[in-house]
Amino acid sequence: MFLPMSPTAGPLERLWHVVFSGLCLAIFAFLILPLVIVVPLSFNAEAYFTFTREMLSLSPEAFSLRWYRELFTNPQWAAAFRNSLFVAVGATLIATTLGTVAALGLAKLKPALRASVMILLLSPMIIPIVIVAAALYFFFTAIGLAQTLTGLILAHAMLGAPFVVTTVLATLSGFDWNLVRAAASLGAGPVHTFRKVTLPAIAPGVISGGLFAFITSLDEVVVVMFLASVDQRTVPRQMWSGIREQLSPTILAAATLLIVASFLLLLFAEMIRRRNEAARASTHED
Amino acid sequence: MSAPLSAEQMAGASPTAMPADIEKAARRVERRQAFSAALLVLPLIVLIAFAFLIPVGLLLFKSIDNPVVAEGLPETLTALQSWSPADGLPSDAAYTGLKRDIEKAKAEGTLGVIGARLNQDTPGARSLLQATGRRLDATTDADPHQAFIAIDKRWGEPEIFGAIRNAGDRYTLNYYLNALDLTRNTAGDIIAKPEGQRLHINLFIRTVWVSALTAFVCFLLAYPIAYLLAHLPARRANLLMIVVLLPFWTSILVRITSWIALLQKQGVVNDALASLGVIGEAGRLALIYNMTGTIIVGTHILLPFFVLPLYSVMKTVNPNLVRAATSLGASPFTAFRRVYFPLTVPGIFAGSSLVFILCTGYFITPALVGGQNGQLISNIIAYHMQQSLNWGLAAALSTLLLVMIGIVYFLYTRLVRDQR
Amino acid sequence: MTSLVSLRGIQKTYDGKQLVVKNLDLEVSEGEFLTLLGPSGSGKTTVLMMLAGFETPTTGEIVIAGQHMTRLPPQKRGIGMVFQNYALFPNMSVAENLAFPLEVRKLPTVELRDRVEKSLAMVRLTPFADRRPSQLSGGQQQRVALARALIFEPRLVLMDEPLGALDKNLREQMQYEIKQIHARLGVTVVYVTHDQSEALTMSDRVAVFNDGIIQQICPPKELYERPGNSFVAGFIGENNRLSGVVRKIIDDECLVEIAPGVTVKARKVGVHATAEPTTLSIRPERVKISPQAGEVDTVIAGEVESVLYHGDHIRAHLRGLGPAPFVVKLPNTNGAAATLVAGASVSIGWASRDCLALDLMEA
Ligand SMILES: Nc1ncnc2c1ncn2[C@@H]1O[C@H](COP(=O)(O)OP(=O)(O)O)[C@@H](O)[C@H]1O
Ligand SMILES: [Mg+2]
User: Fold this and answer.
1) Which terminus has fewer CB within 10 Å in chain A: N or C?
2) Which of B328, B341, B344 would you mutate first to test chain C, the one with the most C CBs within 10 A?
3) What is the pTM of this model?
4) What is the interface size between A and B, counted as CB pairs within 8 Å?
């Protein structure tokens, strides 16, 4: 992971090179270590949040699946997983559909108009989430959507859609609109052209935007806190109570599962991005 | 040799001489295209309006909306119209009006709400109103003035009427005064709250300070790794990018859980330090549930938001520029200072304003790891929303927070423009 | 003329697998204008980067003015360099760009100002001193880059396709200006281009690069008149290629059979023995149509396939000599094209000194 050093470098430069490499190593450790550390801790046989002496000496009795068993048998957690998945899938479907369609429209708007519409569409990303959550609480209570899964799904769709818009717009910026004209000149109708020409071209953006929306919903806790009833608790909401009320290694087990899930999703997203880049590079070569 | 004809001369007419009907037709075509494009954006705008703009707008409106007293005690307020606390006690009409208002409120069941509203400015007002409501009866009709004072001697002081009048405006700026640690004295003048009660300004200052510090720490950590990522061969850079992105993709609550496991008194870091003998059992460090915790965890969560924009700016810096500087005689350090670093400043601006803005709105992290002194403005907003139920104040604080974010964003766009 | 730069046995690989530069030996004389000419990807930039110190040769050594460069970092080499796309510092004005090398050399302010002014005057950019590079046209940026590489008076200046981004007219004007400056200052220039006409018009010597190897290094005239192999013949100017077999060698000439029973006389360049396969190269403008007796050494019959009118000259494609059309280029003088109509049979001919027998061109 180190930068190559020029053989003509002087002593000062060499010293800096070593310091710099060490610094980078430390920063990467800071980024990744907190995620790595929970994995072994979640197999703790004791109800501690740290390594026991026995764990450090690697004695097999110190490790157990106790907290995973707890996680899977506890009806509250089971309901939380179910709710999270249901809300995330619903929100992702809405966000991806509306976001993709909106990006297609935005790409054709005049730049000045597009810029102002974009500010409107992206503002949910920077407004503090507490304000959004509180606002939704009052409004959804007034119209009867508070404490319903529909309300949660709509709120999460709104939070996820900006990601879809930006990723799809980014893919569209490299899209050759002559392809659409070509398809039309060959006799394809607009729906057919969209399915066979536009959609395949923007699919990487749609998928990675959708993944972002999915993760956003899966990670969201503040809106859930304001909007959801006890039966509608999601995994992060459950973890929130866990951290607030009874700090048990069960949440470490849940955290480990979520880390594995996000790692897989990230690999998937990276794969899509690379394939997209490779495809783009090959069309630009000739 | 004659000069060749210019393209314009050959085109003949200038563009302004275009026949009017063609121009109109062109504009019609353009409008139709814009319309169909707008139609595609519409569904999302509807969603955003429904689940964001309208709710947030209504919430912010609560910061000036003040219907409870105005609608609850109308006759009292009418009687108090030309009265001021300096005049001493109000006229009997005010007492009569108050009596009728209270009876009506009692019948409608709104007395508690009115009391709660008055309680926000005048502690004890709620129980006073409730008790008064219970003890009012037909016998008080004769001399409401004395009857009220008999029920509670606070009715014999002008302050309570001043409070009613201050709370009686249909639209009010009082929530903003409160949010800015200001208040009105009974005469209605704006004055600063007593020293001990100025929490909000301190909280705003703390929020700005924590955000600035977090942005600065993020800058210190992001610059080296963004540089590394931008200058490594693509394959290795992609691998390391995953290390940056993985925390980004992992649930915030998971990361907070990990940090608690690491940093708490009986956590991994303290255990390690203690067993190494660096600290004694008694000297375990308080790394979490305080401001330190908020900043450490905040930095970890926001670092990717600094690395990514900085990285993309660094990728666009032509490597030949640094080469040019060295070929002109600059040492690598001079080349970095004079050429490379200035060119990455836009990335630093982007990263720090992003981190700063996100951090000012931070809620989850301070709530879970901030302890007492690590709470930020969002947490107090949530407190007034959920616990004290002073929604007007929460809305006023929200508005001020949004204004602050807007200012930072504006400054950022100005900086970026000046860079060009 | 004394040698200023010596490259000895230089090899370079980036990935440890493929040699980008293979066994390069090159001497550059003091005050010389040497051009490295070759197709894109042939390793020209790599050679410059090694000279400037941004890349290290895998093997071999570089000596400049008697000093070994191996351990000398770029900032101590004192070599001026004009980069591809100029590499002007976008965060500095034109004057600041020019002052940069003087500042890092800690020149006194007065002298620095003076030098910057003179330099601006030299490239006629005095009114633009306070502009940012992005506010200049391509040609002006190019002149700033040139001035910046020269302002600290290096003995050696490297230029990597400095005119590549300019349009044709501007390019020709800048070629002239660079030549002027070179003549006036007497600096040594190593110039890289993939444009053959630029190489031919500007250089004292041209080194033709291909595949990491110098194919030929000599003055421009010789390069065109006496290409050393078929790559050079093909890369510099146009040529017709006929493949054949050497039948007989007489001093520096040879007889080549290009079709059963058809033998032509050619100058021997890249052939060594009889029965060897060879490629004949004939420049289109050296071919005569319907030659007079005694005017040429070789006469062959052909059939006109097509005629293209180019204004100042006429090109004809002929059939019947080898698989590819045989190109003939005639100046457009009165009546030159009279016999050239599609389908007509014509006789063509050339002098044997204009017909070169080269190495076999790989397909
Ligand atoms: N930094 C580098 N890393 C790896 N390969 C390189 C690098 N620079 C150039 N190459 C490769 O070396 C070969 C020669 O490149 P270059 O010297 O730039 O050629 P030219 O300047 O003649 O176009 C090319 O195949 C190119 O891909
Ligand atoms: Mg090159």
Assistant:
1) C
2) B328
3) 0.86
4) 258
